[in-house]
Amino acid sequence: MLLLEGRTALVTGAGGRLGRRIVARLAAEGASVAALDLDREAAERAPAARSCAVVADVRDPDAVENAVAAAENEIGPLDVLVNAHGIFPNRPVLDITAPRWDEVFAVNVRGTMLACQAVARRWVERGTRGAIVTISSGAATSARAGGAHYAGSKAAVNMLVHTLAIELGPHGIRVNAVAPGLVLDEVLTSGEGQPPYFEAMLRATPLRRTGDADDVAQAVAFLASDRSAWTTGAILEVTGGSHCGRTHVPYSGDLQ
Ligand SMILES: NC(=O)c1ccc[n+]([C@@H]2O[C@H](COP(=O)([O-])OP(=O)(O)OC[C@H]3O[C@@H](n4cnc5c(N)ncnc54)[C@H](O)[C@@H]3O)[C@@H](O)[C@H]2O)c1
């Protein structure tokens, strides 16, 4: 039995590195998938057997509303929403401009809230016991230089997930997140010759490899499915362990 047989899912950011693989995984698990992206070409590239592409800027409430209606027109009433859109600039606070700060929060937080709101309003009205899965980030709980706007926006996303879990739980709607670590197109493992940033990241990742997009997509499929029927308000870290704690600190027993 496939995990999502007969389900209908809307995936935002569907043309992105993670979005594409999430669309493919949900389709492989039996779901019909509507692929939403800001970029039409990217949305149409999303790989799913039973898919449709919708274009919207998630910052715009009317565009989100129209996109949800268009998706339901094509694949039927939704029962899964995956928020996989996002932007992740890297800048020290001293160099961040106010418009850039606002843009990060508008896409990552407001956009996620609007997509959840548009879909959940329909579910509450219809009595649909739907599932929302949002891609957060390990950065939400672990600061690093250059990440004030991004990490701050993902911390807000985590709080949105918790709040929605409380508000929508009584309607049978589950709201969870996956918080990935570093996911790259080509998985890197530790070894000589990596650029210094990746070497440092790999040393601080207990499983000693970067993530593959399907590592994230598998977690999304689980949280979208009935396998996680009693899970809501969870932020599932899929990081190879990189955000467990002070992973770069070596064993100190020999010093005592
Ligand atoms: N790749 C990683 O290592 C990683 C790690 C942790 C978290 N994440 C999170 O996962 C999500 C996806 O990341 P990715 O690596 O696939 O990025 P990506 O840039 O490859 O894809 C993001 C997609 O979102 C779309 N998008 C951007 N702004 C939009 C808007 N206003 N409206 C609609 N669509 C919009 C883009 O067109 C793009 O297709 C993001 O939220 C990111 O913060 C990624």
Please describe what this structure looks like.
This protein has helices at residues 17-28, 40-45, 61-75, 98-126, 148-168, 196-203, 213-224, and strands at 8-12, 32-37, 51-55, 80-83, 131-135, 174-180, 235-238. The mean pLDDT is 95. The protein has 7 helices and 7 strands. It is α/β, with parallel strands linked by helices. It has one domain (8-184, 212-234): Rossmann fold. 40% of the residues lie in helices and 14% in strands. Helix 4 (98-126) links the parallel strand 4 (80-83) and strand 5. Helix 1 crosses helix 7, helix 3 (61-75) packs across helix 4 and helix 4 packs parallel to helix 5. The protein is globular. The chain has a 7-stranded parallel sheet with strand order 3-2-1-4-5-6-7, sandwiched between helices. Nicotinamide-adenine-dinucleotide is lined by residues 12-13, 15-19, 37-39, 42, 57-59, 84-88, 107, 111, 135, 137, 180, 182-183. The site of nicotinamide-adenine-dinucleotide has 26 residues, from helix 1 and helix 4.
Q: SSE layout and pairings?
A:
Layout: E1 8-12, H1 17-28, E2 32-37, H2 40-45, E3 51-55, H3 61-75, E4 80-83, H4 98-126, E5 131-135, H5 148-168, E6 174-180, H6 196-203, H7 213-224, E7 235-238
Parallel strand pairs: 1-2, 1-4, 2-3, 4-5, 5-6, 6-7
